[in-house]
Amino acid sequence: MPIKLLINLVYIVSAVMFIYGLKLLTSPVTARRGNFISAAGMFLAVIVTLLNGDIIDYKWIALGIIVGGLIGGFFARIVQMTQMPEMVALFNGFGGIASLLVGTAAYLSLESYPLFIMSTLFLAVLIGGVTFSGSIIAWGKLSEVISGKPVLFRGQTILNASIFVVALMGGAFFIASPANGYLSLIGIITFSLILGVLAVIPIGGADMPVVISLLNSYSGIAACAAGLAIGNNILIVSGALVGASGIILTNVMCKAMNRSLYNVLFGGFGAVTRKTEAAFQGDVNPISPEDTYYILEAACSVVFVPGYGMAVAKAQHAVRELSDLLEENGAEVRYAIHPVAGRMPGHMNVLLAEANVPYDKLIEMEEINRSIASIDVCFVVGANDIVNPAAREDTHSSIYGMPIIQVDRSKTVIVLKRSMAPGFAGIDNGLFYKQNTRMLFGDAKSSIEAVISQFKAV
Amino acid sequence: MGHEECRAACLICMGLVLVLSIFVGFEIISKVPARLHTPLMSGSNAVSGITLVGAIIAAGTAGGILSIILGTLAVAFATVNVVGGYMVTDRMLKMFKPKSDKENVCR
User: Fold this and answer.
1) I need a labelling partner for B56 at 20 to 30 A (CA). Which of A24, A157, B63, B98 fits?
2) Is A394 a catalytic residue?
3) What global pTM score does this model have?
4) Please, what CATH class does the domain formed by A289-457 belong to?
5) ipTM field
């Protein structure tokens, strides 16, 4: 059997394993096995590619695999669960740059220049470049290497559009005169990198779930384009799967914020839409850890509502400890998870899983809202905009219409908060002024630990 | 078949693969529950490391020194994705525990 045929047959097997692996990811029970099957499919695809008779030199491949494997393995081990968004952003970027490099190398080794190959090469390089630089900026914002605030300036959209057009023109030159396309290729790479930076700087920290999802999708599309260019089916299949996954997640995130993708990408939320909103009447009721203990001690149903603040304070273990004490005390404890809580899709679920919270205690927003009026205490840990009743009540608010966890309808709300500073959206939160709300000020982790010591003192 | 016809058939075939994969992707991934969205992202990161296959061909077959350098860099980046992506996904999924040891129902 010719080796090329064998390689392509094994690619089909790998593709099936990727798809089956994703299918097993639809349940937490089988997910780990699915990941393993997917990894085995990848291993198979790589091994069989190494058998390709055209490969004359293995030492550079070995070097790349050893270096990449060590770096990847090292980061996978040391990364903290609170840092997952940064890591995923960085990996998206690596996927993008790999497609860009493969596209460029493929161009250099072309002997003839068919239109189809040139166009897909152009796409692989363009999308790969945007994904890379965009992801690096997203990584910088998430890890707070650079400010998470949206960077906005006059004529931004026009500038971005012009750079995009210039990149497309570079592509047209590249495709029209492929034999000496070096200059236009360098131009395309440069402009794609600039475009990625400019596309992500106007997007603020709390919109990162959307951006990471979108960049995830781009990295898949870039791989797909590279696959079309070099005529490799496994790249096309995998790239399409990842592209689809990213687009689905992007859509879920946008819906959870009640905003269009256009608005997220170009709106610069929180920086330009800040309106003067009605000042809230009434007083804020602060509460001490001791009184918090008395309220919790008497409660028979408690719902924790975690947000990004829990990740920042690394408070997930303290939350779990408190919930254990509450359960020993006879209370029913659950967790309400908003789809955009945190900085990436599913962020809170992973943090709580790390703290050994069983996943059947994690309830999605719609479900908890149905029964929230009967909950004794909602305990809000570092969440703000996702529990802001303005989304329901104030038609002038910039978050009006966003689905929220309606904690204000429960009997008592305890909000853990550093200070009265507004959340990411830059708007005041009427929840803090409600009669059934108590504010427990301070660092989330230390506050919870203070409540825990009250429990233990008894 | 002549050379041109063969190439056209090849393009159609790739187009078919592309379209079907997109459909399969949408069908399966829309069923992944929200609680597994982070592992889904890191896992799909690992899958997008499939560019490694293209990078291996570029690093091992191409003649020029420049394409070998580019190919080797691509191999390294894609391997980071593959190894890091699968390992960190496994680390996360290992933590997902079912059933609570304790079941309180509110009085």
Assistant:
1) A24
2) no
3) 0.90
4) alpha beta
5) 0.92
